[in-house]
Amino acid sequence: MTDAADELARRGPSGTEIADWIRAQIRNSRLVPGQRLVEVDIIRQTGGSRFKVREAFQRLAAEGLVDIEEYRGASVREASMEEVRQLYRARAALEGLCAADFTLHASEADKQKLQEIEQEMENCVDSGASERFGQLNHTWHTLLMRGASNNVIEGLVKRLNTPVHHLLFETFYRSDRLREAIADHRAILDAVMCGDAPGAEAAMRRHVENGHRFLSELDRAMHYRE
Question: Which InterPro entries is this protein grouped with (predicted)?
Answer without folding.
Answer: GntR_C, TF_FadR/GntR_C, Tscrpt_reg_HTH_GntR, WH-like_DNA-bd_sf, WH_DNA-bd_sf
